[in-house]
Amino acid sequence: MLEANDNKELPPIPGKRYFTIGEVAELCDVKPHVLRYWEQEFPMLRPVKRRGNRRYYQRQDVLLIRQIRSLLYEQGFTIGGARQQLSGEGARREASLMRQLIAQTVAELEEVLAALRG
């Protein structure tokens, strides 16, 4: 399972609600065409589509993409193996994503608190 320390080389996820495909590509160190391909291969990856069929990813999508990237590029899974790994984990995967989201939120709040005290 992807933990927060597996992505040390990736930039932190900003505190925004929606991200464009270009922003997600930079945050996850993959090219936009790879993200579009992964949308076809991983049914759980479904960004919101708005005007002109533009994709808008949410924070949980970015975390999922980082997890897919880790499975494929760092752990050596095939697309099918990564898909099976993700779908087989179900609730554990959701819990892990939520823990990552909570940990990042806590870290951001601690930074704000330190800035207010300083």
Helix content: 55-70%
Structural class: mainly alpha
Strand order of the largest sheet: 1-2
**Average of per-residue pLDDT values:** 86
H-E order: HHEEHHH
Domains, number: 1
Number of strands: 2
Q: What form results from the Cα inertia axes?
A: globular
Number of distinct helices: 5
**Judging by the overall fold, what is the CATH architecture?**
Orthogonal Bundle
> What gyration radius follows from the Cα positions, in whole Å?
15 Å
Report on this model:
This protein has helices at 21-28, 32-41, 59-74, 79-89, 91-117; strands at 48-50, 54-56. The protein is mainly α. The protein has one domain (4-117): Orthogonal Bundle (Multidrug-efflux Transporter Regulator, Chain: A, Domain 2), CATH 1.10.1660. Strand 1 and strand 2 form a beta hairpin. Helix 3 (59-74) packs across helix 5 (91-117). It is globular. Mean pLDDT is 86; it is low at 1-7.
Question: Could you give a short description of this structure?
Answer:
The chain is built from five helices and two strands.
Map the helices and strands:
Layout: H1 21-28, H2 32-41, E1 48-50, E2 54-56, H3 59-74, H4 79-89, H5 91-117
Helix pairs in contact: 3-5
List key phrases describing it.
mainly alpha, 118 residues, disordered N terminus, two-stranded antiparallel sheet
